[in-house]
Structure formats: structure tokens, C-alpha cells
Amino acid sequence: MACSNQSAKDYIANARVYLVGELRNLSVILENLYQQDVLTDEEICKINAERDDYDRTRAILDSVTRKGEAACYVFLRIIYQTRRRTLERPTPLFENSHEASTGATKFDLHHWISCFSFTEDPEVDENYIQESRPCYRYQAKLKSKAEKVSKDFWKRSDYLFAENKKPELLYTSLILDLQGKNFPTKIRTFRREKPRPKKLRTYILGNKPEISPSDLLKTDKNILLVGKPGIGKSALSHEILRLWSERDNKELDYMFYFDMRKLTNIPPIRSLEDLLFTACSEPDEGKDEVLQDIKSNSDNVTVILDGVTDLSPSVVEKLVDKDFLPDAKIIITCRPEDEENLSLEDWLRVEVKGFCEETIKTYLSSTLGENHRRS
């Protein structure tokens, strides 16, 4: 990583022409410069008063450079720690041109920052803010709601049991069939096909290696969960939601859950903002800033659409077609008869097939006790 012996001030000066206009999420950089006592409130206000991001970037670089070598060094460490959010990946200079075909690219800021000679490993310091506070507060709000939605899902089954015998219902492992493909590197791509009723007939499954909800949470592929009514598709999607809500990671990401059966009961959805903030959860502050972060960093967004029969309203169709949030991960649950209508390609198709014999016994033991009748 450290292959340059230039001073921090010179290092910034030599890359200034590339930094101006190329840095993104300037609020992240400014917040960290404030937390590191490089810039004051007054200086940040003056920078934010500039007319656009181009001028704001120039003002940041000017302010940091004027403060000398120590401030420049802190600035470079901030850029390194927040590079996923503040630096663009290089793209071809001219699409469909000779330069693109020969691999000509923009100046690679990721490579540039990795070559600076930090006096200590920048990876050891994890106290850098990855986004402004409204975005983190919104993430916390989404996680709190996800936890509540998951708990409410299982509480709805309380009526099945006598008042003094209510078990604590939780997710029980299901058989998730990828049709013999290894997960997640070798996947079955889903294309328009005829339904397979024979494959979905009812029977008790034998024990076989499981694909866990954690595996589904980790993959970056879009996922189609297919299964008969009552087989466990919603239970699986709620487990994914719960796992995300309990994940203690420093990366800022967002997960949105929509019960498609209830989506028609709310005011008309005409925009991405309506879908995310009206139909799911609205930020308590910084609404425009949060929406911009979601759009700018769509690779950190997961959307669960539970119970899809068709891709309506049109906002949902545009979301699935990647007209909105092009790098977002979409998880859809549907019944076999609705699968054909979705016409999705290159999705990870997972068939939810219910409990195996062992998990049936475990479930009965937890709900009815050890003395339940076994067949």
C-alpha cells in the first residue's frame, strides 16, 4: 500500500486536478474533518455555502492545505478510511471508443490513496464516520422497525395455542433448494419457464445440506424465493430481516421490507421516495440527505418484496428493473403460479420446500412438549 514518500501536502497538490469534481459524499469528509479538529463549525458553514460540489471540494482542499502538513495527513487518512463512499471507481473515458477497448480509464483515486505512505496502518483506526448523522439515525430507525416487524410476525401465531402453553415461536430451518448448485458461487439463473407442479408436490423431505438465511443475506445476487402457500417464504424473509437488524457492523446500509398484500392499502405510490419513506419508514431528519445517500450508494441497499403476484405499482417494476437503485439487492417471494409472470433474468432462484423430518420433530417438541404423539 505504502509506495510513495511524498509529504501529505504535496501528495494532495499533485492529485488536486483529479480530486476536484471527483470526490463524492462531501458531508462524510466534512464531518470527519470536524471530528478530527481540522475544521471548525464556521469553516464548514462557509464551505457548505459554496454553490456546488465542485466549488465545495475546492474549498475543502484549500482549507486543508492552508492548515499545513498535519491537516493534510488527517485528510488523506479520512479519504482512505471512507474510500468506498467518497471515491468513485474509474470508468472508461469514452464508451464504445478505441480508448475504452484498450483499457484507458480515469485516474484511479482508489489506487492513488492506497499508495500514500501512512506512518501506521490506517486499517487499525475504525473511528471514522462513514456518513452524516441523519443517515446513521435512519439506519437505526430501520433496524428498530425491522426487529418489531419480525417479532410481530411470530406473535400473530399466538392464537394457535392455549394461553398457558404459548411457546416462543422462532424461525425453524427450512429446506431451500438450489437444485444441486453450490452456493453462492455456482447459481441457477432463472429465466421464464413453465411451472413444474410435479416438483412441488407435498411430501416430507429427507435431511440434506441447508442454505441458511445468513447465506442469503450475504450474497449480493438478486434472490427469487418460490414456494407454495404457507410453506415458509414469509418466515424466511422475516428471518433475513431479523438477522440484518441484529447485525453489528460499522458499514452503513439499509434494508426495506414490504408486504405486497398491504401495499395497496396506502396512498398512491408515484416515486421511489413514496415507496421507501411513505410505505416503509420516513427519516426523522435530513430526508433529502438520506434519500441522496440511498441513491448514491445503492449497493448498500436491500429491498424485500414479500408476496409478489405482479410488478405493480410501476415504481416497484422500475425498482426491480433497476431503473431506480441500479446496484441494490432485491429479494422477491412469490408462489409458483406467479413466478412465470415476473420474467426475471439472472436471479438466484431458491425454492422453499418446507421442513425436513428432523425439523418437524424439533418443532413439535418445542410447541407440544416431548410427550407429543409421533408417527
Characterize the structure shown.
This protein has 375 residues and is an alpha/beta fold. The protein folds into two domains: 8-124, Death Domain, Fas; 133-368, Rossmann fold. The chain has 16 helices and six strands. It has helices spanning 8-19, 26-35, 41-48, 53-66, 69-81, 83-86, 98-101, 109-114, 133-155, 213-218, 233-246, 272-278, 287-296, 314-320, 336-342, 357-368, and strands at 176-177, 223-226, 254-259, 301-306, 329-334, 348-352. A six-stranded mixed beta sheet has the order 1-6-2-5-4-3. Helix 14 links the parallel strand 4 and strand 5 (329-334). Helix 9 runs antiparallel to helix 11. It is elongated, with a radius of gyration of 25 Å. The model is unreliable at 92-100 and 180-205 (pLDDT under 50).
Poorly predicted segments: 92-100, 180-205
Give the CATH level 1 class of the largest domain. Alpha Beta
**Integer tally of domains:** 2
The assigned structural class equals alpha/beta
* Overall outline: elongated
Order of helices and strands: HHHHHHHHHEHEHEHHEHEHEH
Strand order of the largest sheet: 1-6-2-5-4-3
Distinctive features:
375 residues, Rossmann fold, six-stranded mixed sheet, Death Domain, Fas, elongated, alpha/beta
Layout of helices and strands:
Blueprint: H1 8-19, H2 26-35, H3 41-48, H4 53-66, H5 69-81, H6 83-86, H7 98-101, H8 109-114, H9 133-155, E1 176-177, H10 213-218, E2 223-226, H11 233-246, E3 254-259, H12 272-278, H13 287-296, E4 301-306, H14 314-320, E5 329-334, H15 336-342, E6 348-352, H16 357-368
Parallel strand pairs: 2-5, 2-6, 3-4, 4-5
Antiparallel strand pairs: 1-6
Helix pairs in contact: 9-11
